[in-house]
Write the structure tokens for this entry.
Amino acid sequence: MITAVDTSILVDILAADPSHLKASKFLLTKCLQEGRIIASAVAWAELRPLFESTGQMAKVMGIMMVDFDPLDEMAANLAGE
């Protein structure tokens, strides 16, 4: 299974949000056990300000096993049907 993760789940984990960290880590781990985790271009862009560099972001996202997944127009149209 492939799961597209929402920015808020990743922010909860990256910022160690005391209110949501435990639940967000649980959900991300559960999804990883079921398959691949992807982040959309929008989620990736929203996360970028949390890092000092794109290299740092790539490293952390790699450790978290979250892959960048661009969505082209054709795929977006098919998903909406």
